[in-house]
Amino acid sequence: MCKYNITIEDEVMNRVRPTITAGMSEDAWVQIQVQAFFAQMAAKYSEYKEARPRISQRLRGIGRAPEDFDYKKELEGRYQL
Known about the structure:
The protein has 81 residues and is an all-alpha fold. The protein has a domain at 10-63. The protein has helices at residues 10-16, 26-51, 55-60, 71-75.
């Protein structure tokens, strides 16, 4: 588990204090909020990473030949002496 020391401005904390569940410490509340935020970010990153095509897939689309293009015919005369 990673541990971090964070600083939250008093003005911001004063605005969110009313949302903290009665009987819960501010430390516990902040911990829950940060964990939820990080879990959401990790899920979005996983979706992005899975949905994003690999570089080889992206490069294939750069120079597409027409469907009826005949590579063999195109290369036939190139390397003859």
